[in-house]
Amino acid sequence: MNIVPSSPDRLIYNSASSNHGAVDASEAWDHVHTTAFYYVTTSTAKGASETAFPTIDPAAYPAVAFSVDVSATNNPLNVAAYFAVQMNGGAWYVNSTPIPVDTSSVSPDFKTYQQQFIPDAALWNNLAVSSTSVKVGGKAAGDLTGKITGAGLVLVNDSTSAFEFNNFAVTTNSVPPIAPGIVSMPKNQSVYAGGGVSLQIVVSGTQLRYVWEKGGAALANSSRISGANENTLHIADASVSDAGDYSCVISNSAGAVDSGSMASVTLTVDPVPAGLLYTETFPVPWFPTGQYYPVGTVGWEPANSGGLYSNDSSTNAVWFYAGGPTTNVFYVTTASDTGVSGLPFKSIDVAANPGLTFSANIQAKITVTKTYFAVQMNGSQWFVSATSLPTDADGNEKICTQAFAPGKANWNSLTIVGGNGTLGAPATSDLTGSITGAGLVFACGGIDNVRFSSFSISKSDNK
């Protein structure tokens, strides 16, 4: 079996169940979004510990199905598993519907899950695989034709979690689909004109097809609309004409369900307030159940950080836990946020926008963590404010604001590597030109639970 990214310590002996050998697909990193791929092909499986993987022609059998035994052993809500297939020795595809693993409780017991191979393009996404990474892409351009030359499992983790799996098989069983059911409804959303917004529905079932509707009329993908036939609908550059009620029809051969028959989901498009240049409220596009998802979903960096969190329908926040001394940086740039969620981050000419002010809701103990605003100038150098923000001593949420003062005495250099930062020497000159990125730096001196939300940049007048 091959694993991407490579991780050698996966095969375990599980004495807690009747399956005496299994693969532990666990991720222990703190709220880091990861995608792992376990697979076999005709060129890699030669029967060393399994049946040699043959070339499979689906047309030669009444049915072809994938099967695997899965045990949800740790925080199962934070991980999803998908069957994947390689066609004709080349391109990989991953099923658009996750394997319906029972995540209602943690259990060492294994359950068998099966899914029939149906070549319909609507049921598959592209899967980009390299020697070091794997990435789920958009919908397959056409139906999957030809022969199956590889198969496997894609595991998408949003936080500390673990699945164990065993007895992966490709069979000629006929597996009827599981009828669709709605797990979490889309959430009402509001967005400023020109911003981006997403509506997401979480469902159960297999081999699912999605059709998003506005006012009862089916939507189609366009230059502004994507995901019209997926579980997440995204609208870019929103306008007043996009406001209204939305619903999603989910179906397969076993049945159909219409979210509109359960509740209306409303999108509100508001005018941009005078002076507001950028804002990010970190919305969750569906009613969450205490899960994390990556900040890259809303155009922030580091993209794979899974710190976005909410356990109710209120405003969300980015959360991380500092177990000791560390300096974490969360930021946005003109390249990362092009209107994925809320207003896009556009280059801000300092001279043309007087009275710039940064604002964010921050929850961090000032006695443990020093918090700073940071800016990127002219697409290259980062700087961090020389003055920390007056956060609350008890770690309660507080609205923190700071005026942008370009004088060199107000800034220190900042080096960012991944999500970690190093505060450097004082700036050697005043900050001039354009702000092309902004964010928050948390210099933690010990243990702290840090949250932030509602990040914005505004100017004092309408010039």
What's the overall average pLDDT, rounded? 85
Name the poorly predicted regions.
Answer: 8-20, 25-30
What is the CATH-assigned architecture of the largest domain? Answer: Sandwich
Order of strands across the widest beta sheet? Answer: 1-4-11-6-7-9-10
Count of runs of 4 or more consecutive helical residues? 0
Radius of gyration, taken over Cα atoms and rounded to an integer in Å: 24 Å
Shape annotation: globular
Total domain modules? 3
| Helix-residue proportion | under 10%
Q: How many β-strand runs?
A: 37
Distance between the termini: 61 Å
What does this structure look like?
The protein is an all-beta fold and 463 residues long. It has three domains: 2-171, Sandwich (Jelly Rolls); 181-271, Immunoglobulin-like (Sandwich); 278-458, Sandwich (Jelly Rolls), CATH 2.60.120.260. 0% of the residues lie in helices and 48% in strands. The protein is built from no helices and 37 strands. The protein has strands at residues 2-4, 11-12, 22-27, 34-41, 65-74, 79-87, 92-95, 111-116, 124-129, 134-139, 148-157, 161-171, 181-184, 189-192, 197-200, 202-204, 209-214, 217-218, 225-226, 232-235, 244-252, 255-258, 265-270, 276-280, 291-293, 308-310, 317-323, 326-333, 348-349, 357-363, 369-377, 381-385, 398-403, 411-417, 420-426, 434-444, 447-458. The strands form seven sheets. A seven-stranded antiparallel sheet has the order 1-4-11-6-7-9-10, with no helix packed on it. Strands 24, 25, 26, 27, 30, 33 and 37 form a seven-stranded antiparallel sheet that branches. The chain is globular, with a radius of gyration of 24 Å. The model is unreliable at 8-20 and 25-30 (pLDDT under 50).
